[in-house]
Amino acid sequence: MTNPDTTSANIIDKTFDPAEIEARLYRHWESTGAFRPARPDAKPFTIVIPPPNVTGSLHIGHALDNTLQDVLIRYHRLKGEDALWVVGTDHAGIATQMVVERQLAESTQAVTRQEMGRAAFLRTVWDWKEVSGGTITRQLRRLGASCDWSNERFTMDAGFSAAVTKVFVRLYNEKLLYRDKRLVNWDPKFKTAISDLEVETREVQGHFWHFRYPLADGVKLADGRDHIVVATTRPETMLGDMAVAVNAADARYASVIGKFVELPITDRRIPIIADDHADPELGSGAVKITPGHDFNDFEVGKRAGIAAADMLNIFDAEARVAACDGVPARLVGIDRFEARKTIVAEMEALGLLDRVEDKIVQMPYGDRSGVVIEPWLTDQWYVDAATLAAPAIAAVREGKTKFVPANWDKTYFNWMENIQPWCVSRQLWWGHQIPAWYADDGRVFVAETEAEAQAQAGNIVLRRDEDVLDTWFSSALWPFGTLGWPEQTPQLARHYPGDVLVTGFDIIFFWVARMMMQGIHFMDDVPPFATVYCHGLVRDAKGIKMSKSRGNVVDPLILIDKYGADALRFTLTAMESQGRDIKLDEKRIEGYRNFATKLWNAARFAQSNGIVGSTSAMPPAATAPVNRWIIGEVVETARALDAAMTAFRFDDYASTIYQFAWSRFCDWYLELTKPLLAEGADAGIAAETRAVTGWALDQILVLLHPVMPFLTEELWHKLGSRDHDLIVAAWPVTDARLVDADTAAEIDWLIRLVSEIRGGRAELNVSPAAKLPLHVRDADAATQARIRRQTPALERLARIAAISFEAAPAGGAAQIVVDAATYTLPLEGVIDLAAERARLEKAASAAEKEAAALSGRLASPGFTEKAKPEAVEKAREDLAARSSEATRLRAALARLG
RNA sequence: GGGCGCGUAGCUCAGCGGUAGAGCACUGCCUUCACACGGCAGGGGUCACAGGUUCAAACCCUGUCGCGCCCA
Fold first, then answer.
1. Is the CB of A651 within 7 Å of strand B?
2. What is the interface pTM, i.e. ipTM, of the complex?
């Protein structure tokens, strides 16, 4: 009924073509609502996507982040849970505004947003969003992400915007949000405040200019000098100096504290103050204080009693010198870097330039604009982050939210405990406009609508705040805003809090911290997720961070084109070992593409043998040991995968299913059952084997589906007529009673015996084509029974002609020891006796060496007394086995003569 | 300066108290009727170094060296 196959026959093609399959299956899943099956009675499982920027395109980091989320969501969907992956995009205020402004500048009209006006500009941004904003969500589909697209969200949607406004108003009314004049990181290119997290500190070669500031009123230093030397990396800021600070403990300056200097160029008198910020060990020990343009100086200024409103602001929004107390008119309007040259030249001309030295300086740059950030004194809206952080810290301390790997909680605590007031206003147009209205007299009215503000204000003219909110202010509401908050929707009741947040560790400050604060505050103290899974960065094969400028970025879409989405997903999953950075080597992807092909071919083989998918999750009844064995192996594999997923060990998950599918199922089970399916074999056993193979293959498809959804869904339908898609199939039964220890032991023995015989043959250069007779010595009744049962398998896999329990004929032979029995392959005339002697000698020595080590350990006094009883018991068993093996190998050596 | 982490096979990485593992690469053999994007077999590691704890250490502790990242 839901068969997505559009080809006429269900025959598995000789070649596996990911591109065709992926496009077809994704459309099928999405159009049939498979990503969000209705399961009202099931346990909810919820992930909210870290919303990608609407301007973005899929890079390899997204591919990793979303692959992991999809593995989780598909796994939980298969487990029968009510799995919801909330998806959507973020309006990305500054990034989007930049993109659209650039397009406008490059367009034929070459128009600026100021020329257009706010309303027209915003219409243009929305138009852009409708046309180009879907890039990344289309690309997520290429990856196979099974998100709930039917409820896709955007942070600027009406409902979400209403939530943002409500949060702003509530925080304001709770006095957790306020307007204040403080220093911000000002981006003179975009003319907006930016977050300190958007400031990138770079080391650049700069200078340290030492200026002489003349002491006022004829005062002299203890050493007789009439000036104080201060050094600065930013000479132009001297125009805004409001003090010179010295350390109270510095004897050189003790006598001048409280006196004044004549600030050159400006002819302003500024005080000499005592402050611990001045380090006697650094430079002259005296520092100029520019409270309006330096974060440290701002604090010094406040300690000295200067109110923020009185601090001098010497730059305008574009960082040009502004008209200001004492600043000469000739300097007004010139750019800050020009001003620097001018000031230095003028100081030199005044004979006040003491000296200049080269200095590496830490320079703040805007991570998007690339220009030097100016600490600037402005009125902005601030959230009292410290108050909101307290319960967010407690939630992690109390284990309500866990970081995986756990050590990220240290990073979280460190940042949260030192959190600064959060500046949430931005001087942009694209974003949530701040719901604050001003009266001409400066009064502020904060309300959800203009009408409400007007009602508060009475019959006066109001003007709305032109600024918008920081994008993170809105995305902090993502875990509940996407579920309909502030409406108390059934979705919200059911899917908040989320189970897991999957994100890069680099986003802990930006986003995780903010979601924790807002989630707890607005959702009755319930943090937004139980687990925060932090993965690492994807680097190139050499371990270098990918960047456009280095040209070492790998495009996930190109990798998908080349190897298929499944191979890329498997690679990223297999390499994800709890937060460690991933060095992505294309060879690895190629290897997992090969794995996909391997499974494809195994399914082809099964199909050509009349094997079809099972109709029941329960395994078929089985009598043959190999069938009973594989059933047990499937169950144990499913249990191991459950354990891996519970522990968020994506790498374990991938390697467990890889090993099982390839090294167990393909290499052994399919080979061991070939004789059972051959012509002339027992019809009952053949039928049982077909049923078990079909069942086991089905289970592999289910178990692998979270990582390789396309290949597995395709094979699921190729192998049988199904009444549902694999994406909504049931996880295998994991009943331990399905594991039969006796058959497991028998197949384990068989595998060891075949491997030993193969090894011996290869080492002795016996032609792979030659079929040899096998003589068994010292086999007990149980072993003889096993040999009889497994004769067809031994004949095929070990290339044995006939098995005899009679003594081998005299003469050269290869001898194999497995457990208590010795197996002889007569090779009179062809065997290299020396080589066989060497082989046996090597094996005997190894066994003896190990036996000696074990008996040494058992003889040591402390071991048997202090070690765990299991460890002692195991050592005894191992010793017995190794000694026995050594004895038999020595006997074999003796027989060889 | 503070914090986090990493140094295990040629490469990329698991393992984190009981005899060293995987994938890739490498070597030999194999056109065996699912698969050469394959099969079979094999070589390769004083687990950075030095001390210590322990009956037992790649794994725990201390220090040294080397390499990252974050914050100031």
1. yes
2. 0.94
